[in-house]
Amino acid sequence: MDKTTISLVVGGTETLTATVLPEDADDKTVTFTSSDPTIATVTPKQGSVVGKAAGTTKITGTTANGLTVTCDVTVTAE
User: Fold this and answer.
1) Residues contacting 55, CB < 8 A, separation 6+
2) pLDDT for 19-51, tens place per residue?
3) What is the pTM for the complete model shown?
4) 3-state class of 49 per DSSP?
């Protein structure tokens, strides 16, 4: 993943990008999930993170073959 930590204000957005290697991998699909969607949501395919409430959560990117990477998200009130 291109970031391991991000900080957002409530309503702020940030996009995460995951690079799957090797370059010739058959399936480069990455699915993003949030450990606490009440703090921050993430679009499953695009990796767009939106701060929803003050707090911390973890965004996980999972590849088609089950490998995972994470990004710690801190959301603060405006």
Assistant:
1) 36, 38, 39, 74, 75
2) 888 888 888 899 999 999 999 999 999 999 999
3) 0.92
4) strand
